[in-house]
Design a protein that fits this description.
Length: 502
């Protein structure tokens, strides 16, 4: 059952200089919170929850001690200023107004905070927001920002899900970015990860069974959503981003890796409670092509659809390895363009996975990107642009990590080599080392711009705003014709050309 209204997990400042501490630790015999000025025991509340209130101001560091053992950071820490291994910090909850997003008008721009600007911070992204709004983007989507190992990484190995990463600027930096985006009329979507917990998960599992041996994911043990405290950990996290930080939408990572036999399913309950907070807040899910559960069963607003990317990539490049094996014909493209409801399918020519999970992080060649992106932007589905493609970014986007645990670092290196061992041409000794800082630096945007590419994106996005949603699709051999109102896009996949007639 959910916690009673008005109660929150973590350290929450209250009136009169008090801070309320609440943590789920179902197997503990005693729980103590330690601050710089001393400690205090927590009182059991039932259901494995413990709580107390004492004088503690925002900015104070604290840790929990279970059964008189070692100090541990708060599983629902709002700030980890010294990273995974440091104490947690009391933070005054921000109150940022939400902008609200219309699914029918959504144009998403995905970015990685660390690679998007020279500074690699939330503040570093702010100067680029006006150009995105002028381009026709309606929302930026941040790759995960929850605290993960080290100072650089994709963010999908997060451990402290409530704490915006310290190297990006922490809670206050995220507030400034969201407020700046809203001033520009841009919504903010946040990528969140509830299917696994990154290296360092033992610190959370010390409090209770966050993880289960019943099923595994590609990244480690699955999360145990049969536990009421774990369900609240995930759902309260989603609510925090929306209620406190003014986040306008959530992108749930790899929901196919989440198992839950409960009724309601944890992802249905999450969507219901987010929508109860704000019906305009979007819940989007990433899952396998053809998996309709998010929209059909769980009440999500949309789903990331890899299918159109795979169909276009296979047809344009001739690649047939891995997930491209089932694609390669123009009929595949037509099938993906026909998925409905169109606005609930998020499609893309490139995204962080489809670039970064290539061995060398290489982007589509310019002539191929021109074709693929034209189809995506002209389609009835909701388009997503991956950072840099709107001006022809040439730098790669590689997989990079900064694991502080040597075993995790070695596993990251070995995992990359194992992943590509079966692919022809990828058994080379020069595969980028994910732990090498140079791999991260090579992934930063160069900002070397092609004005013609930007102008094409601006024109196509401008057309989206005036054309009817309905798209008629015809094929003639290798030629695909898409018609929307008085405009047409003619794509010749053999000639690798895309001609806009409007």
């Amino acid at each position: 059952m959910p916690l009673p209204p008005g109660t929150e997990l973590g350290a929450v400042p209250r009136s009169g200089g008090q801070t309320e501490f609440r943590v789920w630790a179902p197997a503990a015999r005693s729980v103590e919170v330690r601050l710089d000025g001393g400690g205090s025991p927590l009182t059991p509340e039932g259901g494995g929850f413990w709580a107390t209130a004492l004088r503690a101001a925002p900015g104070e560091r604290y840790a929990y001690v279970l059964d008189g053992s070692r100090e541990l950071a708060d599983p629902c820490s709002r700030c980890q200023p010294d990273g995974l291994l440091g104490r947690s910090q009391v933070v005054e909850a921000p109150r940022v107004d939400r902008l609200g997003l219309a699914l029918e008008e959504l144009v998403i721009y995905e970015l990685h905070v660390g690679a998007f600007s020279d500074e690699g911070t939330f503040d570093g992204a702010i100067p680029y927001l006006p150009a995105l709004r002028e381009l026709g983007v309606t929302a930026i989507e941040l790759m995960p920002v929850a605290t993960f190992p080290g100072s650089r990484g994709w963010g999908y190995d997060g451990v402290y899900a409530y704490a915006p990463h310290h190297s990006y600027g922490g809670p206050s930096g995220l507030v400034r970015l969201v407020e700046a985006a809203h001033r520009e009329g841009l919504g903010v979507i946040l990528d969140v990860v509830y299917n696994h917990i990154g290296p360092g998960s033992d610190a959370l599992n010390a409090f209770g069974p966050y993880l289960t041996a019943e099923h595994a994911t590609a990244w480690g043990p699955g999360v145990d959503f049969t536990q009421a405290g774990v369900r609240e950990w995930a759902i309260r996290n989603a609510l925090m981003w929306v209620e406190s930080y003014g986040i306008d939408g959530l992108r749930l990572d790899a929901v196919h890796a989440i198992r839950d036999g409960s009724r309601p399913h944890v992802l249905a309950e999450l969507a219901d409670r987010v929508h109860a907070t704000d019906p305009r807040a979007l819940v989007l899910a990433e899952t396998f092509p053809g998996d309709e559960r998010p929209v059909g069963q769980w009440g999500h607003d949309g789903r990331w659809d890899d299918g159109l990317h795979h169909a276009l990539h296979a047809l344009l490049t001739g690649e047939r390895d891995g997930h491209y094996a089932a694609y390669g014909s123009i009929d595949d493209v037509v099938r993906e363009l026909s998925r409905t409801p169109a606005e609930r399918q998020v499609v893309y020519a490139q995204d962080h996975d489809q670039v970064g999970n290539r061995a060398f992080g290489d982007r589509l060649a310019p002539e191929l990107l021109r074709v693929a992106s034209s189809v995506v932007l002209f389609a009835a589905q909701t388009p997503l642009i991956f950072m840099g493609e709107e001006y022809g970014e040439a730098n790669p986007f590689r997989f990079f990590t900064d694991h502080v645990d040597p075993a995790a670092a070695a596993a990251a290196r070995a995992g990359r080599r194992r992943e590509f061992a079966a692919y022809p041409g990828f058994d080379r000794a020069d595969l980028p080392d994910p732990q090498d800082p140079a791999t991260f630096r090579a992934s930063k945007l160069s900002r070397r711009e092609s004005p013609a590419v930007r102008a094409r994106y601006r024109r196509l996005l401008g057309l989206r705003r005036r054309l009817p949603r309905e798209v008629r699709v015809e094929t003639d051999g290798s030629v695909l014709t898409m018609r929307r109102g008085d405009a047409a896009l003619v794509v010749d996949f053999d000639a690798r050309t895309a001609e806009l007639r409007a």
